[in-house]
């Protein structure tokens, strides 16, 4: 049920053109509330709706009002029910609504690195895949962000390597025929320059980063299967998101060896 709820929240966020941080914050509120309170299945959507309502008021300049959030549930809940849940959540949270999210750490890492745009948008995509599954709750937001970046960099590098291999094959064939076309050089190992502050914060947590990145690689593979897709796939297939869903997963299937190795991940974060 949680997967369906979060996937629906991603769709609501996209429909209302809310900030990505609003989505991440809303999911954080859902998990924070569920970790301490029991919520019946019929009320889960109300919890998700109200979490998005609270997050929008915290993040957006012009947030949708309670009536709009009641409407988005197909009037399953009323404005009064949304406001009542809001009061309950605020009381439970003691009005403390500022919490760290994966997206906040991603933005910090992006600002203090030389990541390509493809890698940045892929890391956004992976961070939202992580929102769907409870398994990622064992990792703090900073680890999820570092794992998303690690997988994104390796995925982009793998795609470029494939392009070079194809170019080399073509060039070799033409060289044999015409003897005048040079063969393309191979793509160097993935390399990203991070600030010393970022490296200092991450270097002692690399095992967790690697473990999380491996889980994300499996999620990426699962999402590539048409029968398993969620709305997040549709969201990141758009041109404005650089159509990053077109990048092939590093895993061909769940039993194959991934090119996401410990040495590769470590080389990204250790100078």
TrEMBL record:
<dbReference type="InterPro" id="IPR046965">
    <property type="entry name" value="Cyclin_A/B-like"/>
</dbReference>
<keyword id="KW-0132">Cell division</keyword>
<dbReference type="GO" id="GO:0051301">
    <property type="term" value="P:cell division"/>
</dbReference>
<dbReference type="InterPro" id="IPR048258">
    <property type="entry name" value="Cyclins_cyclin-box"/>
</dbReference>
<feature type="domain" description="Cyclin-like">
    <location>
        <begin position="104"/>
        <end position="181"/>
    </location>
</feature>
<dbReference type="InterPro" id="IPR039361">
    <property type="entry name" value="Cyclin"/>
</dbReference>
<dbReference type="InterPro" id="IPR013763">
    <property type="entry name" value="Cyclin-like_dom"/>
</dbReference>
<keyword id="KW-0131">Cell cycle</keyword>
<dbReference type="InterPro" id="IPR004367">
    <property type="entry name" value="Cyclin_C-dom"/>
</dbReference>
<dbReference type="GO" id="GO:0044772">
    <property type="term" value="P:mitotic cell cycle phase transition"/>
</dbReference>
<dbReference type="Pfam" id="PF00134">
    <property type="entry name" value="Cyclin_N"/>
</dbReference>
<protein>
    <submittedName>
        <fullName>Uncharacterized protein</fullName>
    </submittedName>
</protein>
<dbReference type="GO" id="GO:0016538">
    <property type="term" value="F:cyclin-dependent protein serine/threonine kinase regulator activity"/>
</dbReference>
<feature type="domain" description="Cyclin-like">
    <location>
        <begin position="7"/>
        <end position="91"/>
    </location>
</feature>
<feature type="domain" description="Cyclin C-terminal">
    <location>
        <begin position="100"/>
        <end position="250"/>
    </location>
</feature>
<dbReference type="Pfam" id="PF02984">
    <property type="entry name" value="Cyclin_C"/>
</dbReference>
<dbReference type="InterPro" id="IPR036915">
    <property type="entry name" value="Cyclin-like_sf"/>
</dbReference>
<dbReference type="InterPro" id="IPR006671">
    <property type="entry name" value="Cyclin_N"/>
</dbReference>
<comment type="similarity">
    <text>Belongs to the cyclin family. Cyclin AB subfamily.</text>
</comment>
<keyword id="KW-0195">Cyclin</keyword>
